[in-house]
Specification:
Blueprint lengths: L8 H12 L16 H7 L4 H11 L12 H17 L2 E2 L7 E11 L4 E6 L5 E2 L6 E4 L6 E10 L5 E2 L4 E2 L10 E5 L22 H10 L4 E5 L2 H4 L3 H8 L3 E4 L9 E5 L1 H10 L4 H8 L7 E27 L10 E7 L4 E2 L8 E2 L2 H20 L7 E7 L7 H8 L8 E6 L11 E3 L9 H10 L3 E2 L15 H6 L4 E3 L1 E2 L8 H15 L14 H19 L13 H12 L12
Parallel strand pairs: 6-9, 9-10, 10-12, 14-17, 14-18, 18-21, 19-20
Antiparallel strand pairs: 1-13, 2-11, 2-13, 3-4, 3-13, 5-12, 6-13, 7-8, 13-17, 15-16, 19-22
Helix pairs in contact: 1-3, 3-10, 4-10, 10-15, 12-15
Length: 576
């Protein structure tokens, strides 16, 4: 239940005034010559200190880590909605409000839950929750039991387009699957996109595919280099309540788990198997599932909490009667991991960089667009989404039920984890190259003096880990905008080292906190870059499309077909 409709405007204004009192930093190069005068004037209003004020407030202890369906997350949603209202944006949520209600259910594994592995002929091994394994029951039942065999299924992938099937003709119904995260390594861009991770490599796919195959459980082997993050990230992300869409009817697992690498290695050794050998075998198309002489017994009890969270959605109507029914959407998730009760020391996961910064950018974009004397042709949507940390739940719901049909959304631009590290000299727009909008992205980056650099860590699968992916799945050409690794006045190693330090020490940790000495000038530059891209997409004669043959092209064509088949509908400006 929402505790208040809005945080008082006077409180918000006083917070913002603290930031706005600092002198603004002007953009060193006028890169907006290709925009109309109204857009240029609006873009000049983008102020790094307003971004700072938003980040400082949203990541304060008052908001208790912005947990999904928790008090702090609701305050964050109210704050963002209040800002949208102050800017004069039109509500685009439910029933004339800024809030799109997202029906959810929280699942928290009780400490009394047990997972035991019994190797053939050996003694049962009781795994320690949080240390050896993190485990939960996805079925939304309060209790479940498993007593089943364990089967190693390699990467757990069935991908006909790559002539790959880890399951072959072996039935795994009723089994527990032991599976590798990531996907078969390759340098061939035509095979699982080479070094770039596809959705087949994501942990979400592993669980989804296991459930589709009829398995009762899936245990992912955690290997830091393959997951791209350490065990602490897994433990912290899964140690509290996990949230699911209440309306989700897809099959779910009774046991969804991650297991420590050394625990896995010792288990396999006890039954005469070598993990490294199995990993090597899994890299071949000839791999077949390997039944293991191991019995898995689990007794999971869960605390089930139905609740509603909210996406916060606002709209700036377009200026052209022919095009205003279409839109560009900007997004950023406002949730983080909340408070972990009982954790010693600092147990508030403030999420300053992840994703207070993205919200600060989103709000500054909304302020700038709302200040334009004349909006672009198409409408602009601003969406602060919930439950990203729970598996992109909020954006998944918004993608299914957008305020503008997916076929009418020209482009999605997302901001997630943009760290205040200085003035960027390159930019990460991974996924933009998959769209017909990419020439505009390249030209705009050149105007800003930004080089477009390839994803610095393609194996991490960042494209499938943030909210733009939810829009891409329903056909909307979408990607995230972030800094690259090169910053003005610093060698390239500076950016890489800061990124490594953040991943190792602060990512999904209580230490992801606001620092008063952060310089938000670079975030303002990223905001301007995103502003210009969105304005251009909203003013283009045609909607953006995916490059023919892209994995999301079929969904785009389906969404455009749905628009074309609407009665009494003029599909203005749609791609053909």
């Amino acid at each position: 239940m929402r505790r208040s409709a809005f945080i008082s405007a006077s409180l918000l204004l006083s917070i913002l005034a603290l930031g706005a009192s600092r002198p603004s930093v002007k953009k060193p190069v006028d890169s907006a010559q290709s925009l109309p005068a109204s857009a240029q004037a609006a873009m000049k209003l983008i102020n790094p200190e307003r971004i700072r004020a938003h980040v400082k407030f949203l990541s304060s202890d008052l908001l208790e880590g912005r947990g999904t369906g928790q008090r702090g997350g609701d305050i964050a949603a109210d704050y963002i909605a209040t800002e949208f209202a102050l800017f004069g944006l039109k509500p685009a949520g439910d029933n004339g409000t800024y809030f799109q209600k997202v029906p959810m259910v929280g699942i928290a594994t009780e400490p009394t839950s047990t997972v035991t592995l019994t190797p053939g002929g050996g003694k049962p091994v009781a795994l320690r929750q949080g240390d050896d394994i993190v485990a939960m029951d996805e079925t939304q039942n309060t209790a479940s039991k498993i007593d089943s065999d364990l089967v190693f299924v390699g990467y757990g992938i069935e991908a006909p387009e790559y002539n790959w099937n880890d399951f072959k003709d072996v039935s795994v119904a009723g089994k527990v699957l032991l599976v590798l995260v990531n996907e078969p390594p390759s340098d061939d861009p035509n095979f699982f996109k080479g070094k770039a991770l596809t959705y087949y490599g994501r942990w979400t796919y592993k669980y989804e595919e296991a459930a589709r195959k009829g398995a009762v459980g899936a245990i992912i082997i955690h290997k830091t280099d393959m997951a791209s993050y350490g065990w602490d990230v897994v433990r912290n992300s899964w140690g509290g309540e996990r949230s699911y869409l209440r309306s989700d009817s897809d099959p779910k697992l009774k046991l969804a788990a991650w297991m420590q690498l050394d625990v896995t290695r010792n288990l396999l050794s006890s039954v005469g198997k070598d993990l490294d050998t199995l990993i090597e075998q899994a890299r071949s198309r000839d791999f077949r599932p390997v039944p293991l002489p191991v019995r898995v017994e689990s007794n999971i009890t869960s605390k089930i909490r139905p609740f509603e969270s909210s996406n916060v959605v606002a709209m700036l109507p377009g200026s052209d009667p022919k095009f205003k029914q279409q839109a560009v959407i900007y997004s950023a998730h406002y949730d983080h991991l909340g408070i972990h009760p009982g954790q010693p020391g600092d147990n508030i996961y403030n999420g300053a960089i992840d994703n207070g910064t993205g919200c600060g950018i989103l709000l500054e974009l909304a302020h700038a667009f709302a200040s334009a004397s004349q909006p672009p042709k198409r409408s602009i949507l601003f969406a602060a989404v919930t439950a990203e940390e729970q598996g992109l739940r909020g954006s998944e719901f918004l993608g299914r039920k957008p305020p503008v049909p997916a076929g009418d959304i020209a482009l999605g631009l997302n901001f997630d984890g943009v760290a205040p590290r200085g003035i960027p000299e390159d930019v990460d727009v991974s996924g933009a190259e998959r769209t017909t909008f990419y020439p505009v992205v390249k030209a705009t980056a050149k105007e800003f003096g930004l080089e477009i650099k390839p994803d610095s860590n393609p194996g991490a699968g960042h494209y499938y880990r943030s909210d733009h992916f939810s829009f891409a799945r329903v056909g909307v050409p979408s990607f995230s905008i972030n800094e690259g690794m090169k910053f003005k006045g610093h060698p390239i190693d500076y950016g890489f080292q800061l990124e490594k330090d953040y991943t190792d020490r602060d990512y999904h940790q209580p230490s992801d906190e606001y620092h008063a000495d952060w310089d938000f000038t670079g975030l303002a530059e990223i905001t301007r870059f995103g502003f210009e891209l969105g304005w251009k997409a909203a003013s283009a004669p045609e909607l953006t499309a995916w490059v023919p043959g892209d994995e999301f092209d079929t969904a785009r064509k389906a969404s455009l077909k749905a628009i074309a088949e609407e009665p009494d509908r003029t599909n203005a400006g749609a791609t053909k």
